[in-house]
Specification:
3-stranded antiparallel beta sheet, 2 domains, Nudix hydrolase domain-containing protein, 179 residues, 4-stranded mixed beta sheet
Length: 179
Amino acid sequence: MIHPLAKFLFCPCCGSARFEVNDFKSKRCTDCSFTFYHNAAAATVAVILNSRNELLVTRRAFNPAAGTLDLPGGFVDAGETAEEGIVREVEEETDGKAVVEKFLFSLPNEYVYSDFIVHTTDLFFLCRLLDETALFACDDAAALFWLPLADIRPSNFGLASIAAGVQKLLESNISYTPT
């Protein structure tokens, strides 16, 4: 297994090339003693159902997994709560306004970006839209559509955590509940 910080060759504090593996998730500089930890990034996933028991699904525009199905979501920005992050991500990808109903569960994921593995903790939230009629695929969503729960196949979702999360949702018999 390649160490998650293998591409980090120099200490970010002093620039020393003696930036060495400390343990399975960190590197330590033998010159200045700085230790850098590779921790999981927070990411969010929106589970949005309509009154016809259809799930709002996107088609990924870019790699990783370009062209496969996905759910609206993305990385939480610094200084932002997970709830703020999912509302922002839904708006960026759908042009819709979301309201967070409740936290559902979390799953680990490995997201490859620029040939670098970003370990994430994906936080799944049940959300509702203030208006389901004026949605547009934006940002990194190539397409946006409502998919009946009965037609969903987790294997069509390109990211491992999203496929596992969709499977978990289907097993829980999730369905639309009016607010």
